[in-house]
Amino acid sequence: MSVLNVLRERGHKVELLDDDHVLIEPPPPPAWVPRLVKIKPELIEALKAERQARREDLEELFHERAAIAEYDGGMSREEAEELAVRTVWRWAINTGDAGTYRSTALTYDEARAELERRFHDRKVTHLEFISAIAEGHGFVPYRPELGETKQ
Question: Are 139 and 103 in contact (CB under 8 A)?
Answer without folding.
Answer: yes
